């Protein structure tokens, strides 16, 4: 989609036509009209069906050609093969948007794929946005516009938009939120996304002033640029985007030759990218709805701090404290004044450590409960306050008004975890404008997302003020297919300012000895051959070679092992290099992902990257801050910071190297499929890094070379 | 508690007296009588209260002395200070058990602790079991015996017993399960456990024939032997024990000198021990109730296999497949016959890969749905079948009878995940004897517990047939306080059959040279001093010493560094040892935990044990199978199995070493506080291990030596 589609007529239509409409309330073709009437849609409705003259009191049109021109939105509930002809006829009547419920497109395989391709072409050609096909439809409760066949009550409307790539899953979240007394304003089931995709909707909702939170279920994005623009727009308007990303597919056909790519996988890129852009990624259905619920209701303290917990149950307090630790939520260390005031206020047996166990007896004296909460909200270190209550129907009508008062007065995050609440209690909580969640664990999990989002938002707004200068010049490197030898690879790295050991190619023992003497002992000898990707495993690398005699014997041994590996091996020479001193070995690389394009990868070196799966991958380009975050996010980061008297190591130089690789792989993306610099030796702080190996893989042959 | 308490009169009382009873239904003192009447308790009830002659139609006794003798159970709802005198008087009337609701004991701190101690002594002296104090009480619905002041409906009774160390939390689980149409038969809030503890109840319920599943909320156990006996009894009777263990406390006062103990922590010992004994440990409230629910309803296939998923929503299928991967639940690879049959049965666009997406259209043709399920249940690789449905009230009455038929016919695990079910649908599912759970993620999480429990059960029953012979002789080692030097430590290890390098103590350079020549070059030189715990960090270890001259210079350097470390250092000599070849470094150790006693620890060696927190700890004694499980459970296990052409390493010798350490630390538990063998070099397969260092810490001074 090159030109931005106008989704306004779709979501806020002044007129709607229903192609293939019918009466009643049960059939798919009957649902839209039924729901539009039920909700009291105020625009014009034009049913089309040759079989009827009238449907549910609406005059029925015999064909599309009889319709008035310029209708905002058309609902198509007809056979798949009839969809495109109908759309063409609607286009002639200047219809402005459409939604297609019909299935029978790409989801049924080969037969439907062509039909769907033609639908895509229709949208591209006409600029008419089409939701679907194979969609449950959508609704916008503000305008009472429902183009859907879901079972919806639409009894609540909150400033939330939800987009789903699975209609059924979306409906489930709607139902689950309804039980929490929360409702979406916008809901859209994006179906097969022939013409309008997930992030087109995100983009549109980000621009809707009244929408506070955008949620979604996503299996995959289709267009990196579109996704990135939409997500940046959410950031710009400070609209939290809360996504459940499902499907842990592999890089599949792009399976690749180097370790770099075998460690990648698109779900890890998504996670890393979402983290980078402060998209809130949730893990399951409950976390999704709880987080949406909390974000849309929560006030946000301008100051960063931790959480305070007030509980009537010691057990729930322990559970919440455990969950805080597991989820990296700081429990505020209370100020001495706070503790003193609480001690004066609460009975002797209450625990005034955070979590604060006020015991169930507090219910006899609710002013003390309110008082304690107010004291805690005044503590500077408290960003969010959670109060735990449970069941207790008899007391709810007395407690809830007090909590409601606090909720409305404070400008900090105030959450009530009311476990086992009855329907009546739930209604009272919602009516009181209180943000409430159902169990201790779920409450802390949602709170984690809120607090981390706020922290990250602040960090990103600082970072976004930093102008990111290029570290390297954009340089043309000679493109190739398949691999090149290490010597040339290292020269490419040096072009991008990445240090490599001093080295020379030797064609025979004498040249090797000469090279070694020029470089100075000790040296490293390695075979140069495009046929051996992992040299150290086949004995064609000799380190710590200390004399002319050792060069001689090593040279012979390497050549022998190379021939053992493959009698027909083609050898470009022996690389003689300076021996590089101590440091921490990491691996740095890049791959091209089908969606994200060039991505940069960092892993702890040696066998640990394999065994501990300790690596991180992010789409290029990287800023120096991105690179630092990547470094900090690997599990082995402590090794770089220094342990047991070793280190610290040059993390800044490593971050710069990541940025250089990011610039390299973006500049060369037309031909470069993969880059694997393994190991990169990170020296002590201030002493930089050295790339000890380099494997470049050009496109085309990347596949045939994979082992 | 030395003699086993008889809990029968407590849980199945033929007569009950209520001390401090009152009328009505609201007050704590009124609740038991109210609930006993409401439920229709059939035994005798004797209220005691000097203020009344009659309560709710029951003659009221003026004092305990007027009560008949041999009453089975007394409920005490009186002031804390009145509890003990009342119990003494009840004992004189030969009451057989009691429950104390009253708070004001250990939970209020110092003042209540003595009172509680006296209560403990009462139970020990009289053998009368007392539940509480500070307890919500308990119920046994089979006998309609309720000694509680909870809000309970008791509308359902399933073969489940639940024990909770937090009354409020327990009530919450009761409420949550009630919403899933499930009810406990036994429930007990154990309160402060002055006389009867958590595992006394587990023991009792494990012996109750009609109980199928035992669940619980536990903050901590009090007695290792009691816990272990109760858990083994559950295993013996094949009663799954499902626990939510909360509180991540530290070893606290036992903070210790070596790395071994700083890595330990009782919550990791609990987890490891629970895994060992096949106790199902859950992570949060939902997982707790879902797992209890699934275990009590599920049938269990005698054959081990994976899961098959049938779904009407592609999205839910993806979510469940993701969760299977995350939770290590195998999705069955279907047999070709199964696939063929499914293809014949299902529409072309359905996906017959597992998860099987039958699409929502299947609802038009339910025989196909039943048919597909039956085909799948006949696949040998399918141990459990999950079917996903959602909302869809109109179809529930048609579908549920068909599912019910399947559920009752099959002897495999059959679970319906019905998301967003209405109350009516829930009732129909339960009435149909169907095991149902509410969301895709929760379903798979509970299923994981069931499948893993079944696998582990089979494994344990095989293991339990192996007679575990001691590997070492029980030997007396000379006890000491604080530390001993490495040389003596290594001699202790050799006594237990753990290999160490050949070595000698040298008092001067000449002796060192002599020792080196006896051993043969290369050698290692180390200072021997009890004042330096981590030698390599202060430069008092020299490896790869190759000649007399190098011995001389190394000796001097070591002595210099030792003096630099502490001018007043006391040196026992220089240890000269053979240089040990290559291998993988691990650390093995033991600590004494206050609850679990001697525990054995294994970690990957070097800095990785610290940085990656890659260690595992289990209570001694260990069988060789336990030891192998420990080895397999560390993240770095792949390194031992061999990667990149290195290894495999001698895992069996390492397992034996763990067993030897287990025997050592149990034999010497009276004086040995900690043992730290770091590193243990694991050689290639068949070549054994070598302990390269040994730090023994005797009791008493362990604390003062901690850094």
Automatic annotation (TrEMBL), chains A, B:
Domain ATP-grasp: 490-526
InterPro entries in alphabetical order: Acyl-CoA_Synth/Transferase, ATP-grasp, ATP_grasp_subdomain_1, CoA-bd, Ligase_CoA_dom, NAD(P)-bd_dom_sf, Succ_CoA_lig_flav_dom, Succinyl-CoA_synth-like
Any one Gene Ontology molecular-function term assigned to this protein's record: ligase activity
Ligase in keyword set: yes
Keyword Ligase included in the entry's annotation: yes
This protein's UniProt keywords: ATP-binding, Ligase, Nucleotide-binding
Protein name in the entry: Acetate--CoA ligase family protein
Organism of origin: Metabacillus rhizolycopersici
């Amino acid at each position: 989609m090159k030109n931005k589609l106008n989704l306004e007529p779709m979501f806020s239509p002044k007129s709607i036509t229903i192609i293939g409409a019918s009466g009643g309330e049960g059939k798919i073709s009957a649902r839209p009209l039924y729901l539009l009437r039920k909700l009291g849609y105020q625009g014009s409705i034009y049913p089309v069906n040759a079989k009827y003259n009238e449907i549910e009191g609406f005059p029925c049109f015999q064909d599309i050609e009889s319709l008035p021109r310029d209708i905002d939105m058309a609902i198509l509930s007809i056979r798949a093969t009839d969809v495109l002809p109908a759309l063409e006829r609607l286009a002639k009547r200047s219809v402005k948007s459409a939604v297609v419920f019909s299935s029978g497109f790409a989801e049924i395989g080969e037969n439907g794929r062509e039909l769907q391709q033609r639908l895509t072409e229709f949208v591209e050609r006409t600029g008419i946005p089409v939701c679907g096909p194979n969609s449950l439809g959508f609704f916008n409760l503000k305008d009472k516009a429902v183009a859907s066949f879901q079972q919806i009550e639409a009894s609540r409307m909150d400033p939330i938009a939800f987009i789903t790539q699975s209609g059924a899953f979306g409906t489930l979240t709607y139902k689950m939120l309804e039980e929490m007394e929360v409702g979406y304003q916008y809901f859209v089931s994006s179906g097969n996304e022939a013409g309008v995709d997930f992030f087109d909707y995100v983009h549109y909702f980000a621009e809707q002033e009244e929408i506070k939170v955008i949620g979604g279920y996503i299996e995959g994005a289709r267009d990196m640029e579109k996704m990135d623009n939409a997500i940046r727009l959410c950031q710009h308007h400070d609209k939290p985007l809360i996504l459940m990303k499902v499907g842990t597919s592999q890089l599949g056909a792009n399976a690749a030759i180097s370790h770099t790519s075998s460690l990648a996988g698109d779900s890890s890129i998504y996670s890393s990218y979402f983290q980078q852009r402060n998209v809130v990624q949730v893990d399951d259905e409950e976390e999704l709805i709880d987080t949406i619920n909390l974000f849309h209701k929560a006030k946000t303290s301008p100051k960063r701090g931790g959480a305070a917990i007030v509980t009537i149950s010691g057990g729930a307090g322990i559970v919440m404290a455990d969950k805080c630790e597991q989820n990296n939520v700081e429990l505020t260390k209370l100020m001495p004044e706070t503790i003193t005031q609480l001690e004066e206020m609460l009975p002797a047996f209450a625990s005034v450590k955070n979590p604060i166990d006020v015991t169930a007896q507090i219910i006899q004296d609710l002013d003390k409960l309110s008082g304690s909460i107010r004291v805690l909200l005044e503590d500077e270190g408290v960003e969010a306050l959670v109060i735990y209550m449970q069941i207790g129907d008899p007391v709810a009508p007395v407690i809830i008004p007090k909590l409601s008062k606090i909720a409305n007065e404070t400008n900090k995050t105030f959450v009530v975890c009311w476990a086992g609440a009855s329907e009546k209690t739930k209604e009272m909580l919602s009516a009181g404008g209180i943000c409430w969640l159902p169990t201790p664990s779920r409450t802390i999990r949602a709170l984690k997302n809120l607090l981390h989002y706020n922290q990250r938002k602040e960090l990103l707004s600082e970072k976004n003020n930093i102008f990111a200068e290029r570290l390297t010049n954009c340089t043309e490197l000679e493109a190739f297919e398949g691999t090149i030898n290490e010597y040339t690879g290292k020269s490419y790295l040096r072009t991008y300012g990445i240090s490599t050991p001093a080295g020379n190619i030797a064609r025979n023992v004498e040249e090797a000895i000469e090279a070694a003497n020029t470089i100075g002992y000790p040296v490293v000898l390695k075979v140069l051959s495009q046929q051996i990707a992992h040299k150290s495993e086949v004995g064609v690398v000799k380190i710590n070679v200390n004399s002319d005699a050792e060069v001689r014997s090593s040279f012979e041994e390497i050549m022998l092992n190379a021939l053992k590996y493959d009698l027909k091996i083609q050898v470009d020479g022996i690389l003689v290099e300076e021996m590089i001193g101590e440091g921490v070995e990491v691996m740095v690389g890049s791959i091209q992902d089908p969606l994200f394009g060039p991505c940069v990868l960092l892993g702890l070196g040696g066998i640990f990257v394999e065994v501990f799966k300790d690596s991180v991958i992010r789409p290029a380009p990287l800023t120096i801050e991105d690179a630092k975050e990547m470094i900090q996010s690997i599990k082995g980061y402590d090794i770089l910071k220094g342990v047991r008297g070793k280190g610290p190591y040059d993390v800044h130089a490593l971050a710069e190297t990541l940025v250089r690789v990011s610039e390299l792989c973006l500049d060369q993306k037309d031909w470069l499929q993969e880059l694997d610099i393994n190991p990169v030796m990170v020296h002590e702080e201030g002493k930089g890094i050295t790339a000890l190996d380099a494997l470049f893989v050009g496109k085309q042959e990347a596949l045939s070379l994979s082992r």
